[in-house]
């Protein structure tokens, strides 16, 4: 897939495509060539592609006329309908839930959910407060941001790492949290000290020339804020107890520099690599007002009349010359006849839908296993984390069962605010999922009080918790695809089976990201369109 290039203008992209240096449309033309499309048709389609509006570096070239039924109105299903719609297809989206978006779920005041185990909740959040229960952050390189641009969904920075957020490892004996900046100063400082001293004593004589060693030591002195004797002695990077201000107030440095042994015993260093990850490095972004602005905009662009909600598909039949999809809506059974189908439900759900697509499809679907994650939104009457702790956005990392605590990246300095009190996975998520919403709140608040103090309890206004394994028609946060999506086992899903195509983040290398859902949808519609144009 062509990765969007930040800051690169359309003309530069078009130029690179022309000279064959990028994927995107250029790669698609190559594919069409391989499919035996006539060069003149290719040229016409290329011209049209360049005149058509950009869509995350993607536009189907040429018009196709066929009827396509899309099962599932999550990002993959909606993106399929959106892209096919632009190319002239007649699409119908069948979505089992009462809203589109699938795992892209934003909870606001008045929203209700009923879990598979019967747990019912209604959010009591005040106006303007929201919780992204599923996706919440977007790296710059993901195609999701291109769709935001094309669909007119405004975005703002999502703070994924914050030097002033906390780290709290209770199992390592920490009794109070440590700021990221302090933890980093100490860990980088001691690591630099030991490497600098070892280098100075000749430990790297085999690996490095004398000049290289001098350069390394220079780097380490700066990186770890080392003294002349290559010792780590702390400094302003750790933070202050009294911050610098007017003349007479130079600031009081945070005292009590812990020993190297104590620093490593806290285990704080384990969180630093998170921000090095390709998909988690700052800057990150979020749609203004909630992540569901994306499916809302997609649904509007597709046309609400093409999207049927509350329509649960119960059977998919490939007839050879077409596809019949059976669904229930409002207690009645209906069918849709189409030329093609794109099945864009999660694999664990699709595996339960009767079909005649063969045992290869079924065993591939069953090999992919659902994974667990959960979140709780805690609305507070005041933004005490900004007022008292000076934390504006970002994530506090813990080894408690709440795992990650998120400060909101919107509404700064406002009156109220909404924290994510836990974002946890696997057993931790399931253990919260087994509790009632009130018990979840109690347990999450007790964990937060250990880090932030009593205001975590006393300022609380209301909460709403979401457990993805208990969510009807989804039953998973994301999926484990053993051996990766290109294993031969998944061939019947990566290629069309008869007239049925498959799409979803689980058929990508970025499972658990909307980018994967978009990318797989684009792959499916490209293949479908090429087939229609070639027929
Ligand atoms: C907790 C959490 C955090 C995440 N964080 C991020 C993040 O920060 N950034 C990011 O980009 N992504 C994130 N993701 C991943 C993102 O949500 C998914 O990658 C994406 O939404 C998947 O889209 P999809 O269309 O493939 O699948 P889904 O969203 O699962 O859509 C499938 C659709 O099929 C419907 N369906 C199921 N059965 C039927 C049926 N029988 N008939 C009709 N319809 C049916 C479902 O109701 C659903 O709407 C997160 C997900 C979770 C759960
Ligand atoms: N994309 C999800 C799930 C995920 C978590 C951590 C790493 C990779 C993926 C998120 O960012 O929250």
TrEMBL record:
GO terms for molecular function: L-amino-acid oxidase activity. Keywords: Oxidoreductase. Residues 75-528 form the Amine oxidase domain. FAD binds at residues 95-96, 134-137, 313. One of its GO terms (biological process) is amino acid catabolic process. Pfam families: Amino_oxidase. Substrate binds at residues 137, 422. Its cofactor is FAD. This is Flavin monoamine oxidase family protein. It comes from Streptomyces himalayensis subsp. aureolus. The lineage of its organism: Bacteria, Bacillati, Actinomycetota, Actinomycetes, Kitasatosporales.
């Amino acid at each position: 897939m062509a990765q969007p290039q930040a800051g690169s203008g359309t003309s530069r992209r078009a130029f690179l495509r022309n000279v064959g240096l990028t994927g995107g449309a250029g790669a698609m033309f190559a594919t069409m060539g391989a499919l035996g499309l006539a060069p003149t048709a290719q040229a016409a389609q290329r011209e049209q592609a360049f005149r058509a509006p950009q869509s995350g570096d993607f536009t189907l070239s040429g018009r196709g006329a066929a009827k396509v039924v899309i099962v599932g109105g999550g990002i993959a299903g909606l993106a399929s309908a959106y892209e096919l719609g632009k190319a002239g297809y007649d699409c119908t989206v069948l979505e089992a839930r009462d809203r589109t978006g699938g795992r892209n779920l934003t909870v606001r005041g008045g929203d209700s959910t009923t879990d598979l185990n019967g747990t019912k909740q209604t959010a009591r959040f005040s106006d303007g407060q929201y919780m992204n229960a599923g996706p919440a952050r977007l790296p710059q390189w993901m195609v999701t941001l291109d769709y935001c641009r094309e669909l007119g969904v405004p975005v703002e920075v999502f703070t994924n790492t914050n030097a002033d957020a906390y780290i709290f490892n209770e199992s390592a004996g920490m009794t109070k949290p440590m700021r990221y900046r302090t933890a980093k100063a100490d860990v980088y400082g001691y690591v630099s000290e030991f490497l600098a001293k070892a280098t100075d004593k000749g430990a790297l004589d085999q690996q490095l020339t004398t000049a290289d060693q001098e350069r390394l030591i220079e780097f380490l002195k700066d990186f770890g804020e080392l003294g002349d004797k290559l010792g780590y002695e702390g400094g302003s990077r750790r933070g202050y107890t009294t911050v610098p201000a007017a003349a007479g107030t130079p600031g009081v440095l945070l005292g009590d520099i812990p020993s190297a042994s104590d620093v490593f015993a806290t285990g704080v260093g384990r969180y630093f690599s998170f921000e090095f990850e390709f998909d988690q490095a700052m800057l990150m972004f979020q749609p203004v007002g909630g992540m569901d602005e994306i499916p809302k905009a997609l649904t509007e662009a597709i046309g609400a009349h093409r999207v049927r909600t509350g329509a649960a598909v119960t059977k998919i039949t490939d007839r050879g010359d077409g596809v019949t999809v059976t669904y229930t809506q409002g207690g009645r059974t209906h069918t849709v006849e189409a030329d093609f189908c794109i099945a864009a439900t999660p694999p664990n759900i699709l595996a339960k839908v009767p079909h005649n697509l063969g045992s290869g499809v079924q065993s591939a679907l069953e090999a992919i296993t659902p994974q667990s994650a959960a979140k709780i939104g805690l609305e507070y009457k005041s933004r005490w984390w900004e007022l008292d702790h000076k934390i504006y956005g970002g994530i506090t990392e813990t080894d408690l069962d709440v795992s990650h605590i998120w400060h909101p990246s919107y509404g700064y300095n406002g009156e109220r605010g909404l924290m994510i009190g836990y974002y946890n996975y696997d057993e931790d998520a399931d253990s919260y999922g087994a509790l009632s919403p009130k018990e979840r709140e109690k347990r999450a608040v007790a964990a937060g009080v250990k880090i932030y103090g009593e205001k975590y309890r006393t300022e609380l206004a209301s909460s709403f918790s979401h457990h993805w394994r208990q969510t009807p028609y989804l039953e998973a946060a994301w999926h484990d695809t053993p051996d990766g999506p290109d294993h031969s086992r998944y061939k019947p899903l990566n290629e069309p089976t008869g007239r049925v195509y498959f799409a979803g983040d689980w058929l990508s290398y970025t499972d658990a990201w909307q980018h994967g859902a978009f990318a797989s949808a684009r792959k499916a519609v490209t293949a479908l369109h090429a087939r229609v144009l070639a027929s």
